[in-house]
Design goal:
This protein is α+β, with helices and mostly antiparallel strands. It is built from twelve helices and eleven strands. 54% of the residues lie in helices and 16% in strands. It has a five-stranded mixed sheet with strand order 5-4-8-9-7. A four-stranded antiparallel sheet has the order 2-10-1-11, with helices on one face.
Length: 393
């Protein structure tokens, strides 16, 4: 008799509404939770695409710094500050030329005569992304190897060569082209042979061996700028750290933002994950609130019947048991189905990711998360239901 009476108190539309909203909220919540677990290692360490990134920084040029050039140089304490940052692994400074450099050829049937001014920079070899066999300098030899950025060759082939009627050059062709360098400074001049021995995709500068530039600055420099640093190369051990862009913005440093696109990408990814997670959590909370409102409505509408059941000998535990079981069964069924849906969604996005990137599949925590939420909800529901029934009867 008790079961028949209590069945009549249920409002089916409210139970269905609770089940539907809880299913949607938990499916999104579990999927987003597992997506973050799967993708976070991929973005931070698993693939070559997202390994340590580097960037070159300098100080912004302003009118004030135009009038006072000393402001463009980094001080020693600023370099030390960079080295202490958690998201920076290595800091290296560029050596600059403090003398004049001219490159020229005598002309041939394969390549016309040309003459142009150049500048050189150098950086320790460990920070280079290439290691050509000829990347060495010997004081006893009259040869200087050069590394240029890959995009310089593209600019020449598709811009300068077209406008000047010059031949286009492949990497192999330009690597076999020997030209002359004339270095002038400190009231002396010297000619060298030179050749481009490599193309860097990491450093956007014309590089020569570090040993050569240190030697050449001592010999040809006629200024006091030999120890002044205007550009610094940084290697990040946490390229996705949200502090990177904020730090350089606060210091007013110029940085190649394209090198840190991944930092912004990861920031937006985390923000999107957090936003969707919060929305799904709100849906779950609303579904819980909805079932409590429904339960309150049921109790208030059937208060007289519940009192009569208590008067004829039923305890509040017996009266509450039906509602506890009903809500528990619906919750278990919904969460189990949400776990299946989330696993299905996970398999779908893993297939897509696997087609694009090679990564290590992470463990599936969907059902663990589902089980923990289930225990929490059942504990809350059973406790509150029995308190409400006890209060009424």
């Amino acid at each position: 008799m008790l079961l028949k009476l209590q069945k009549k108190t249920l409002i089916k539309s409210q139970i269905i509404g609770y089940a539907f909203t809880l299913l949607i909220g938990m499916s999104i919540l579990l999927t987003v939770f597992q997506l973050y677990i799967d993708v976070n290692p991929l973005l931070t360490e698993q693939t070559d695409i997202f390994k340590k990134q580097s960037a070159i920084i300098s100080k912004k040029i302003s009118l004030f710094k135009t009038l006072n050039k000393e402001k463009i140089y980094f001080k020693e304490k600023e370099i030390e500050e960079l080295k202490k940052l958690d998201f920076i692994e290595n800091v290296s400074v560029f050596q600059n030329t403090n003398f004049k450099v001219q490159a020229f050829t005598s002309g041939s049937s394969n390549f016309p005569m040309f003459q142009t001014d150049l500048f050189f920079e150098s950086i320790p070899d460990i920070y280079l992304d290439i290691n050509p066999e000829e990347w060495k300098w010997n004081a006893s030899e009259n040869f200087i190897p050069i590394i240029i950025p890959e995009n310089y060759l593209n600019l020449y082939n598709f811009g300068f060569a077209e406008s000047q009627g010059l031949p286009v050059l492949s990497k192999n062709t330009i690597s076999n082209l020997t030209f002359n360098l004339q270095i002038t400074g400190n009231y002396t001049s010297q000619n060298f042979k030179s050749r481009i021995v490599g193309f860097s995709s990491k450093i956007n500068s014309i590089l020569v061996p570090n040993d050569f530039l240190i030697w050449a600055n001592k010999k040809f420099s006629d200024s006091n700028n030999s120890n002044k640093i205007n550009r610094v190369l940084l290697e990040f051990n946490k390229p996705a750290d949200e502090q990177i862009l904020n730090f350089f913005k606060s210091k007013d440093y110029e940085i190649n933002k394209e090198k840190l696109e991944f930092s912004k990408l990861f920031f937006f990814f985390k923000s999107a994950i957090i936003f969707v997670f919060i929305i799904s959590l709100i849906i779950v909370i609303l579904s819980i609130a909805f079932i409590f409102l429904s339960l309150n409505l049921i109790i208030q509408r059937n208060k007289e019947m519940l009192l009569n059941l208590a008067n004829i000998g039923y305890t509040y535990q017996q009266i509450a048991k039906f509602y506890q079981i009903m809500i528990s069964v619906v919750t278990v069924f919904v969460l189990f189905f949400a776990g299946i849906l989330s696993t299905t969604f996970r398999n779908m996005y893993l297939v897509k990711i696997s087609e694009l990137l090679n990564f290590k599949r992470q463990e599936n925590f969907i059902f663990i998360g589902m089980f923990l939420v289930l225990i929490l909800l059942l504990g809350i529901y059973n406790t509150i239901i029995i308190r409400k029934i006890k209060k009424v009867v």
